[in-house]
Amino acid sequence: MSEEIVKIKGSKSGLQLSFADGATFDDVRQDIEEKLVSGTGFFLRGTLVLLPNDAFTEGERGKLQKLFHEHGLICRTMKAEQQTPSEKVREESKQHQEAVKKAKAEKEKVQEMVVVNRTLRGGQEIRTESSVMVCGNVNPGAQIIAGGSIDIRGTCRGMVHAGAFGDSTAFIIADHLMPTQIRISNLIARSPDEMEKTERAERASIKEGRIVIEPIER
Fold it and tell me: Which of 63, 88, 159, 164 could serve as 181's disulfide partner, Cβ 3.0–4.6 Å?
């Protein structure tokens, strides 16, 4: 390997070490040991030596620390603020990639939807962690239990439960919303015995700690 295996940079905190790309743990250990044995001016007894915290495993870094201690030096792992700009960039890039991956997974989860292209009759049930769209009616005795929101392109006269696993932002929409029971998250409501008929679709959602039903435009 033509590039220097172990690079040493002096700082106010101590000696900061960095390692050549592709260098193995054995390469680094051997190079450090040779420098210690040769009595190089960098490694004076009592000097603080800082190892990059993303190099090798914790156990391997422990072996390097032991090696320095045997030669009278103090060895620690760098804190984030002691990292060089390039090391900080690598760490921040890694964190950014993880955040993007997590956000993408959450977005994909939100977009999941079960589509039912039929009327749900009495005794039939849809139960899912996703959102649900029904292209038909939900008759009395039928029920939908969804982790997300529920959209019914028809009349709802059954039992519907949106946000069944604690999502209080979930909502229920139907062309005609007349359920025997309606639930959103941990709240329960039911339609009044007499409801004013409307030609507009209706939406049920949680507002100020209670379920509110209001007309909407599709």
Answer: 159
d(CA 71, CA 188): 71
Q: Are 120 and 137 in contact (CB under 8 A)?
A: yes
- Among residues of the chain, what percentage have pLDDT more than 70? 78
pTM as predicted: 0.51
- Answer whether 60's CB lies under 8 Å from 52's CB: no
Inter-residue contact 217 to 203 (CB < 8 Å): no
Q: Which CATH architecture has domain 6-85?
A: 2-Layer Sandwich (3.30)
Q: Which CATH number fits domain 112-216: 2.40.37.10, 3.30.470.20, 2.160.20.70, 1.10.10.10?
A: 2.160.20.70
Name the residue among 68, 84, 3 with its Cα closest to residue 29. Answer: 68
